[in-house]
Amino acid sequence: MHESNLWAAWTLRSHDVLTAALPDGLGLRDAAALTLVESHPECSVDWLLARIGLTQSGTVRLIDRLESLGYLTRARAGRAVRLTLLPAGRDVLRQWNEAREAAGDEALRGLSPSQRAELNVLLGQALRRTERLRVDADTTCRLCDWTACTECPVAESVEQT
């Protein structure tokens, strides 16, 4: 077995399972934007832009689409534009989190409970040992259910500057 092949195959399998679990009409960046806005109420467009991996115009188009679907709203607050998730956005985000959980179960179904626990420990260690800035940690966790993670290894990896 070649380590990088295993890692690449696992990563692509995980991506494929996650993508298949998305609610109709949403892409991974849509789910990430909804997740980030929900986890950081009243965040600004600029804050989201730094975490979503799009250009400014791409982020604005993403927000336009999510707003037209009734998932979020934006309002000017001084010089910033603040984003707020609407009830329909919370509903689709809840659906996404449930589907993401099922996708995780699907991706890990070949492992026993003890193997899954061991994998969680190893992944947690790897995530903790990658020092990163807060913005990069938020980017890493952009598809996470933030309320479900009580001991986040990514948060523990944030450089204290």
Automatic annotation (TrEMBL):
Pfam families: MarR_2 (PF12802). Residues 19-116 form the HTH marR-type domain. SUPFAM superfamilies: Winged helix' DNA-binding domain. It comes from the Bacteria. InterPro entries: HTH_MarR-typ, MarR/SlyA-like, WH-like_DNA-bd_sf, WH_DNA-bd_sf. This is HTH marR-type domain-containing protein.
